[in-house]
């Protein structure tokens, strides 16, 4: 198994652990995303690492979608290329690659940040702070006592431990996605017979 493929699997494992902790936090806090909201994906200066999009890049390569994505990226979209302006059959609204979204996409909304004086605060959006004000205030108080919240810094550290170079290669989201796709495509185009099987 290639280094890139193994690395993508390690990232998926971290994502799976994070998703479980977020689900528990959502359950216990009552906080959730507003229906059909994509506001955080529409941030034009959203920055991410290359590493967090390695699983997406492997998936795209395995399913021969990488060139379609590279063509879309070449159009210079202001927003994340995974938003629905890229039509993927059966998935035309919101994030077209939800299963392979990045670390920031998972952390934002329902993870914790450490404040200047060490208190925890919820890394979330105005939609949640205002639309679910009561639950938000209650959860903010409780994460500093008994309520467990996944801390963003812990998961960033886990990514650093997987591959510090790709974890610290931070760019605008579409640049990181493109870099991840090019890394995977370059590797497999120079390693005939090493294309991983989908699934
Ligand atoms: S985190 Fe906030 S802005 Fe992002 S989708 Fe959820 S409700 Fe919308
Ligand atoms: S990958 Fe999906 S969830 Fe993340 S910013 Fe792009 S559209 Fe939003």
Structure description:
By secondary structure, the chain is mainly α. The protein has one domain (3-189). Helix content is 49%, strand content 7%. The chain has 9 helices and 4 strands, in the order αβαααββααααβα. The strands form 2 sheets. A two-stranded antiparallel ribbon has the order 1-4. Strand 2 and strand 3 (120-123) form a beta hairpin. The protein binds iron/sulfur cluster (2 copies). Residues 33-34, 37-40, 108-109, 125, 127-128 line the site of one iron/sulfur cluster.
Number of domains: 1
Tally of individual helices: 9
- End-to-end CA span: 14 Å
Q: Going across the biggest sheet, name each strand in turn.
A: 1-4
Order of helices and strands: HEHHHEEHHHHEH
> Which shape, going by the Cα principal axes?
globular
């Amino acid at each position: 198994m290639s280094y890139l493929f193994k690395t993508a699997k390690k990232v998926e494992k971290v994502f799976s652990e994070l998703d479980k902790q977020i689900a528990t936090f959502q359950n216990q806090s009552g906080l959730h995303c507003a229906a059909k909201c994509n506001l955080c994906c529409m941030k034009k200066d959203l920055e991410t690492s290359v590493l967090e999009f390695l699983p997406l890049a492997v998936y795209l390569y395995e399913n021969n979608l990488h060139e379609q994505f590279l063509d879309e990226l070449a159009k210079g979209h202001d927003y994340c290329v995974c938003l629905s302006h890229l039509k993927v059959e059966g998935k035309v609204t919101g994030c077209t690659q939800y299963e392979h979204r990045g670390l920031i996409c998972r952390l934002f909304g329902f993870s914790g940040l450490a404040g200047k004086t060490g208190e925890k605060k919820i890394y979330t959006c105005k939609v949640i702070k205002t639309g679910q004000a009561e639950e938000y205030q209650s959860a903010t108080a409780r994460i500093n006592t008994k309520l467990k919240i996944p801390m963003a810094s812990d998961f960033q550290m886990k990514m650093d431990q997987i591959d510090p170079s790709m974890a610290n290669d931070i760019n605008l989201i579409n640049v990181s996605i493109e870099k991840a796709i090019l890394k995977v495509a370059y590797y497999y185009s120079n390693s005939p017979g090493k294309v991983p099987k989908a699934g």
